[in-house]
Amino acid sequence: MRFHQLFFLLLTFLSPHFAFAHFFLKIPAYIGYNDALQATAPCGGFSATSRPVVTDFTVNGFPVGITSTHNGVTYEFRAALLSAPTTWVSLTPTCQVTSGGYPYFCEPQIPGVAAWAGQDAVLQVIQHASDGTLYQCAAIKFVTGGPYTGYTTTQCRNSTSPATNAVWV
Ligand SMILES: [Cu+2]
């Protein structure tokens, strides 16, 4: 590879806002990711009722982990019943995440909806960033118990270099 090609690649990946990839829901497993459709509500271009992988989400807390290409964002964590997939309820206050780079952010205990234990549901994560509002969803089933501690601190972590700072507002 010639130098100018390498330089171009580096520029592409180091650019503060490269055109592809907005944010990825890592935990729980997302329904799907399509970069071009991520601004499409409610699930970034995928059906809220699609269930390729279903995660048991303990109502007393379950981790939600995200990687973002944006270094100053706001997240909303919401859920809907599979039987009413357009009626979203907020699980938490809004969360502001800042970082000097591309943050990995994991909140280990996002609360579920206790009254929905035993029911199929959809988790929706909304990212408000400089390029707009973006969506990712995960197929879940609310189950009793928790907080769930089955992920290691490697799997559910916050970036430390540069540091990720999260504030609930
Ligand atoms: Cu973006």
Automatic annotation (TrEMBL):
One GO CC term, this protein: plasma membrane
Protein's name according to its UniProt entry: Copper acquisition factor BIM1-like domain-containing protein
Principal location: membrane
Keyword Membrane: yes
UniProt cross-references to Pfam families, sorted A to Z: BIM1-like_dom
Domain Copper acquisition factor BIM1-like residues, every copy: 21-161
Superkingdom classification of source: Eukaryota
Subcellular compartments: Cell membrane
Topology of this chain in the membrane: Lipid-anchor; GPI-anchor
Residues annotated as signal peptide: 1-21
